[in-house]
Specification:
The structure holds two protein chains of two kinds. Chain A is an all-alpha fold. Chain A has a two-stranded antiparallel ribbon with strand order 1-2. Chain B contains 15 helices and two strands. In chain B, strands 1-2 form a two-stranded antiparallel sheet. In chain B, α2 packs parallel to α14 and α13 packs across α14. Chain B is globular.
């Protein structure tokens, strides 16, 4: 009994550590700037982090299979641009239709990426790097280099991100719903468990009859849908669609996910982890300007955070493996 | 042909000779040049072929070390950032009073150190793929460049510095001469030395290499360090051509360079490739860009073309290697 509890605690060591780190960091920020832990700032924090959270879900699946997707920043820009252009031409379009349009755009791009990776056997980084440039180029082409600004968007479209449901901002509501669905999907459905299996050992997955290629396609398609959704949310939130929207945002998403303990070599990661990772990353983004860190420092800080996170993941895993070996010794 | 011995060179036959990837590349190169010649009547002059390469040879320095990295089965997406960081440090240190030759050496030292760090991280943490390591260092290096220079530009180099990018020796651009020298060095290094053979062996089976006494960690580190050094060389020529530098220079270079390498027939799975392929690919992509530039095609369309080229060439490579593997019966699937 005692042993069981101990092992359960060590199972969650990483998440608890992350939680403790978030609390400590929050207190430090609070000391530097008392505005940090106010209700309005926390609301801001969660609203700003919601889009990141939506994308983390997709990126977690991609990383679970041992892949990576660098094309999502471009997908966000493209789906946002396409929906914004549609809204600017037909202002009467319902926001729901806009959301669906964005998701469909993302789905197509995601399926192409997935097809290239699963069926054409192109390395994820090369396929998504190529698609990133293609989609980014397309974004400039469809917009002819122009922006879609706030006055061209209908009020209904802008209300997607400013409106509230039950007193909570819509973005946060959408993120929570996606997390609930995702947590059920990845932990309790067969397909969800297949994703882990494909990532931890592709050969074994093939041998036991898991449709590995279809799983890969599914994962990148899902990433595409979420990126497409995020594109609409992004454009609605910032009330402007530009050719360089979300340039490099894929790095933030990868950072948040690996911070949450998802292994980049596949097969390891928890939903609770990415929630904490996303919040921690959102907190850094929110608090660094509050404590007067120059915006030019943020990129380097982000990079260091990713590197530290992946390295600590490796060290923790090495330690775990060593412990498991030691347990076997009688 | 026995499957158990490593066959580094296939037996010579007319069929093998004509079914080489390089012929396809040569045909492509000639096709592009014929296409270009329709755009301007003055195209087929010696001057075009001597001066045009000045426009794209700065990237070409990165192609051979990138080929070495891809032969190992790895990838490096941080090269653009290394160029930016070393170029920014060179400019800032020169403007802070360091003599220009010393600043240039500093540029090379910085870039080599960046490469070394990439290599050490990969060797120390083997669990991490080269993708994630270089993605994070990509952000860090460019982030440091932004910390140093914020969004300003820096330049005002001495006038002789522009010789690197713009100068001629006789009729031949200086950059072309340097490129030829590096091509010879890398051709020998990759195809005629023990180091090169170990490179290909590691790309095929890293574990087996480790067990047979190749110092795989040292190989990883040295290849990354060479990449860093060459990024420094690129930084020198690029900065010289532009006359000033900003933290966002050379962004997206990794795409061009990786596209050149894989178009050149180097397998992204590692272990396969010949230096002639990437060498031809440099000129294919270079002349393609030049021609499309003459045609007044926007930079965004170039992005799309480059992306398509990257994906299609990897796809063709995969098909080619699959077929060969099926024929030799090594892989059943």
């Amino acid at each position: 009994m005692k042993n069981k509890r101990a092992s359960r605690l060590s199972d969650h060591a990483r998440e608890l550590g992350l939680l403790a780190f978030i609390v400590i960091l929050a207190l430090l920020f609070q000391i530097r700037n008392p505005k940090f832990l106010t209700l309005s700032n926390l609301k801001d924090l969660f609203t700003n982090t919601a889009i990141l959270g939506v994308l983390s879900v997709g990126m977690m699946m991609v990383l679970l299979t041992g892949g990576i997707d660098l094309s999502i920043g471009a997908t966000i820009a493209f789906s946002g641009m396409v929906t914004a252009l549609t809204v600017s031409v037909n202002p009467s379009i319902s926001p729901i239709v806009s959301l669906l349009q964005g998701m469909a755009t993302g789905l197509i791009i995601g399926m192409i990426v997935g097809f290239l990776i699963a069926y054409c056997k192109i390395l994820p980084i090369i396929a998504s790097l190529g698609m990133m440039n293609i989609v980014r180029g397309l974004t400039y082409l469809v917009s002819k280099g122009k922006w879609v600004s706030a006055y061209q968007m209908s009020d209904g479209f802008k209300a997607i991100s400013t409106g509230t449901t039950l007193g909570i901002n819509n973005l946060v509501v959408i993120a929570i719903v996606i997390y609930l669905i995702f947590a059920y999907f990845i932990n309790h459905t067969r397909t969800g468990r297949f994703i882990y299996a494909v990532g931890s050992s592709p050969e074994t997955a093939d041998i036991v009859g898991i449709p590995r290629k279809r799983i890969l396609l599914l994962v990148y398609a899902a990433m595409g849908v979420l990126a497409g959704l995020a594109g609409v949310l992004w454009v609605s939130r910032y009330a402007s669609a530009q050719g360089d929207t979300a340039q490099g945002y894929e790095m933030s998403v990868i950072a948040a996910v690996v911070l949450g303990g998802v292994s980049v070599s596949g097969g390891r990661g928890k939903v609770s982890g990415i929630i904490l990772g996303t919040i921690l990353f959102g907190m850094l983004n929110n608090a660094l300007p509050l404590i007067n860190v120059s915006p030019f420092w943020q990129q380097a800080i982000q990079g260091v955070v990713i590197l530290m996170a992946v390295i600590s993941n490796v060290l923790i895993k090495r330690n775990n493996d060593r412990m498991t070996l030691r347990k076997r010794v009688i | 042909m026995s499957e158990r011995t490593i066959q580094t060179e296939k037996p010579w036959s007319w069929k093998n000779f004509f079914f080489q990837w390089e012929w396809f590349l040569i045909a492509l190169l000639i096709g592009i040049n014929i296409f270009n010649s329709f755009l301007t009547p003055y195209y087929f002059t010696a001057d075009t072929f001597l001066s045009t390469p000045m426009n794209f040879l700065d990237k070409a320095f990165l192609v051979f070390p990138m080929m070495m990295i891809i032969v190992l089965g790895n990838i490096d997406v941080s090269v653009g950032s290394i160029i930016a960081l070393s170029s920014v440090i060179m400019a800032v240190s020169y403007n802070a009073g360091l003599p220009m030759p010393a600043a240039m050496v500093l540029c090379l030292i910085v870039s080599t150190t960046c490469g070394l760090i990439n290599g050490l991280l990969q060797a120390k943490f083997k669990e991490l793929s080269s993708t994630i390591v270089t993605i994070s260092t990509q952000i860090i290096y460019r982030g440091i460049a932004y910390i140093i220079l914020e969004d300003k530009a820096s330049g005002k180099f001495p006038s002789w510095f522009s010789f690197l990018g713009w100068g001629y020796v006789g009729n031949v651009p200086f950059i072309t001469i340097v490129f030829v020298v590096f091509t010879i060095i890398f051709a020998i290094l990759i195809h005629r030395t023990r180091f090169g053979r170990q490179l290909f062996a590691m790309g095929n089976n890293s574990t087996a290499c480790r067990y047979s006494g190749i110092k795989t960690e040292n190989m990883l580190v040295s290849v990354s360090t060479i990449m860093g050094f060459m990024a420094g060389i690129t930084a020198l020529f690029l900065t010289s051509r532009m006359g000033s530098t900003r933290p966002n220079v050379a962004s997206g270079y990794e795409l061009d360079v990786i596209a050149m390498v894989v178009l050149g027939g180097v397998s992204t799975a590692g272990g396969k490739g010949r230096i002639t392929g990437p060498l031809l690919a440099i000129f294919i992509i270079g002349f393609l860009n030049y021609g499309l530039g003459l045609f007044n095609i926007s930079a965004q369309v170039l992005l799309i073309i480059l992306g398509v080229l990257l994906i299609v060439s990897v796809m063709l490579q995969n098909l080619r290697f699959d077929k060969r593997r099926q024929k030799s019966g090594v892989v059943s699937k």
